[in-house]
Amino acid sequence: METSTETGFSYAEGGVTAPLGFLAAGVSAGIKKSGKRDVALLVAEESCPAAAVYTLNTMAAAPVQVTREHMSSGIARAAVVNAGNANACTGSSGMADARAMAQATADALGCDAREVAVASTGVIGMPMPMDLVLAGIAEAASELNSTAGNAAAEAIMTTDTFLKEVAITVEVEDVRYTVGGMAKGSGMIMPNMATMLAFVTTDAPLTSEACAVALRSAVDVTFNRVTVDSDTSTNDMCLLMASGAAGGDSIGVGDAGFAVIGGAIRAVCGELARMIVRDGEGATKFIEVTVRGAASDGDARDAAMSIANSPLFKTAIFGGDANWGRVAMAVGKSSARVDPDRLEIVFAGITTCKDGTAVPFDEDAAALALAANEIEVTADLHLGDGTATVWTCDLSYEYVRINGEYRS
Amino acid sequence: METSTETGFSYAEGGVTAPLGFLAAGVSAGIKKSGKRDVALLVAEESCPAAAVYTLNTMAAAPVQVTREHMSSGIARAAVVNAGNANACTGSSGMADARAMAQATADALGCDAREVAVASTGVIGMPMPMDLVLAGIAEAASELNSTAGNAAAEAIMTTDTFLKEVAITVEVEDVRYTVGGMAKGSGMIMPNMATMLAFVTTDAPLTSEACAVALRSAVDVTFNRVTVDSDTSTNDMCLLMASGAAGGDSIGVGDAGFAVIGGAIRAVCGELARMIVRDGEGATKFIEVTVRGAASDGDARDAAMSIANSPLFKTAIFGGDANWGRVAMAVGKSSARVDPDRLEIVFAGITTCKDGTAVPFDEDAAALALAANEIEVTADLHLGDGTATVWTCDLSYEYVRINGEYRS
C-alpha cells in the first residue's frame, strides 16, 4: 500500500456502528463488580466476509480457540464479548462456556453458531459466571441498534480509563465507504499478531480473502508495533467484518478499491493501537520510538522494541531525563546488527549522541522538551535502509500500584 | 560437575583477598560526587592464569573491549576498576582512557599492560575524569595489602545498597584452597554471558584453560540465571584469577581437583549472583523461579526467564498477590513448548493451578506465604525432563523512583 492511499481520509463520528449494516449493544450483566457494562454484541445485519488474527501465546484462552475455529470459514454474523473474566486457563469447562456464548448469540439472531466470534477479557483462571453471561447476551440481543457502537466499546473495557473507538470514511469510484473500530487494552500489552481486543467493521464489499489480507497487513504495522509492558496476553484478538452494505462491486485483493479500503483499515487500526498506548497502565507520556539506518526492517523492529520495552528507558522518560545511554544500551542488547561508532540518537528533538559518543546538549532545553506529553526518540544505526516505528508509554509508580492491586 | 562436589564447603571471612597471593585496595578518587571509594585495584602477587567473560551487548564499553584483548592470553597480574563513570559510548577517547588505566596500573606494579584487566561502571556517555582516575590508581597502588578485599568491594559499588563479597574453602588431597569473590550490580541486570562486575580469585593452581572452563560453566548457571529488569548492561564482566599460592600440583581440566575447585567457583558465583538480586533496585522480595517438566533445559530456561522478566508477575509479587494467571501468561508467551492442559503452578508452596486450570486455595494462607521475604514459584510443564531455576526480585515503586532520578 502506498502512502498516497491514505490521503483523502475523513474522520467520522462513532466506531463499529458507523459503517452501514452493523448493529451493536452493550449491557451490564453483573460480571464486573462495579456494575458497569460488561457484555457487548456486534452484529452484521446479514452474514458477511470476515477475518481475525489471534494471540500467539500458547496458553490461548478458550474464546480465542473457539473463534479461531469459527472464523476459519471467512464468514461472520456477530461477535459476542464479555469483560471482567478472561475465560483463560479454564480447561474443558471454559471451552464449553465459550461455545455456549456463541450458541446463545446464534439462537438470539437465528444464525449458525459457527458464524459467531467469541472474545473475553478480565481475570485469568476463574470459572465464567454463565448465568450472568447468558442473561446479558439475551438482554443485549434485545437492545441491538445501529447507534450503540459506543455502548459496546464501553462494555469491553477493563482497566482502560477511556473508551477507544474511531471511524474513517473514504471514497472509491463515487461510493463512500466507512471503516469503524473499537478496542480495549491498557496492560499485558505487547500484542503478537493481534491486540488485546479490537473489532473493526466496514460497509465496503470486501471478499473474505481481502479481509484476511487487509487485516494482516494492517495489524503488522499497528497493533504489532505497540507495547505497554512486554507482556503478551492470552486473549488477544482482532476481528474485521465487512458488511458490504454501502454497495458497489465486490472488492478483492487485486481490485482497484482494495488499496484505499486497506489504507483506511490500517489507519483505523493505527488510531486504536495508539489509543491503547496512550491509555497504557500508569502512563504519563506517549512515546514514539523510531529506529532507522538499520541493516534490515527486522533489525530496526528488534532494536525499536528493545528500546520500547526497556524498564530503564521507560523510567527515564517518566523522570524527564534525556538518558540516551539507556537507548544505546537497549540497542546494544537487541539482536540488531550495530556498529558502535555510527550510532546516532535524537532524544525529544535533541541530538544527544553521534558517532557512538556524547554530543553536548543544553540540559534545560532537554528538560523542557521532555515535559511534553508526547516524546519522540530516534536511533539511527547508519548501516542501511531498515526502518521501524513502535509506540509505547513510560513506566510510572502508577503502573506498579495498578498491577500490585489488580488481579488480571 | 556432580552435586556431590559441593559438599564439604566451608565459608570463610572476606572476599577477593581471602585466597593466598592476592592484594587489593579501594580508594576515594573523587569520581563519585558522594566522595565514597571509587577506584579499586585487585592484584596477584605474581602473574597468574586467568579467564574472563563479557557482556554480549554490542555497545560493549571501552574497558570491556580492552580487557577482552588483554585477557586473551589467559594470564593476568591485576584488575583496575572505577565506579561512577562507565566509560561506555565514549568512542576512541574512551578506548585511549581504558588503555591509559591499564598502563598506569602496569607502571605502578612493574608488569606488562596486557596483564591488566580494566573495568568501569557508572554513567554511560560521559568522558572519564582521567586526572582523578590516574591519581586514584597511584594512591590505590600505594595502599595495596592482603586484607583490603572489603575496601575494593566497596569501591566498585554504584546504586548497590550493600557490599557483595564471599569466600569458600575446599580441600583437595590435603591442600586447603580458597575461592573468593566480589561483585557489584543492582540495576540494568540481565547478564548475558557475564554480570555487571564480578571478580573471583582462588589460590588453587588452576591452568588458564581450567580457569576458562570453570568460569564459563559457573557463569552459565549463576550470573546468567539472574535478572532484575531484563536490561543487559554495556559493561558486564566477570574475571577469575588463580594465583596458585596455596601450593599443590597444577590443576587442569581433566585433573582430580578440578571438579572440587570448579564447584567452589560455582558456589561463589552463585552467592554473588543471588546477592545482586537481593540488592535489585527497589527490591522488596527475592524470588526463585523454577520451571521443570519442560521438553528441554533450554525451554525451561526460556519459560523461567519469561516469568522472571514479566512486569505483571513482578508487580503481583510486590502486591502480595498469588496471581498465577500471570505465570501462565508468561509461560505461554515464551518460546517453550507447552501443553496448556498439563500446566501446574505452585505459588509460594501453594498449588494454584493443575492440568491448566485453577485449584481452589485459601487466600489467607496465600497472603501469609507471600508476606515472606523469599518467594518460590514453580511451573511444571509435565512434558519432559527440562529444568531451570532463575532468580529475580519484585518490581516496586522504588525501582521507578531510583531510575526516574538516577542517570546511569
Can you offer a commentary on this structure?
The structure is a homodimer of 408-residue chains. Chain A is α+β, with helices and mostly antiparallel strands and 408 residues long. Chain A folds into two domains: 8-278, 4-Layer Sandwich (L-amino peptidase D-ALA esterase/amidase); 286-405, ArgJ beta chain, C-terminal domain (Ubiquitin-like (UB roll), Roll), CATH 3.10.20. Helix content of chain A is 32%, strand content 27%. Chain A has helices at residues 62-70, 91-109, 130-143, 149-155, 208-220, 258-278, 297-309, 311-318, 324-333, 363-369, 397-405, and strands spanning 10-12, 22-27, 39-54, 75-85, 116-123, 164-172, 175-184, 197-202, 226-227, 237-242, 286-294, 344-347, 350-354, 357-358, 374-380, 386-393. In chain A, helix 1 packs across helix 2 and helix 7 (297-309) crosses helix 9. Residues 1-6 and 191-195 of chain A have low confidence and may be disordered. At the A-B interface, helix 2, helix 8, helix 9, strand 14 and helix 11 of A face helix 2, helix 8, helix 9, strand 13 and helix 11 of B.
CATH superfamily of the largest domain in chain A: L-amino peptidase D-ALA esterase/amidase
Biggest beta-sheet profile of chain A: 9 strands, mixed
CATH class of the largest domain in chain A: Alpha Beta
Total number of helices of chain A: 11
Just name the CATH architecture of the largest domain in chain A: 4-Layer Sandwich
**Radius of gyration of chain A, in angstroms, nearest whole number:** 22 Å
- The total tally of domains of chain A equals 2
Shape category of chain A: globular
**Strand composition percent of chain A:** 25-35%
Kindly report the oligomeric state of this protein: homodimer
Low-confidence parts of chain A? 1-6, 191-195
Average pLDDT over all residues of chain A: 88
| Most extensive chain-chain interface | A-B, 70 and 70 residues
Number of strands of chain A: 16
- Helix fraction of chain A? 25-40%
Secondary-structure element series of chain A: EEEHEHEHHEEEHEEHEHHHEEEHEEH
- CATH T-level topology of the largest domain in chain A: L-amino peptidase D-ALA esterase/amidase
| Termini separation of chain A | 38 Å
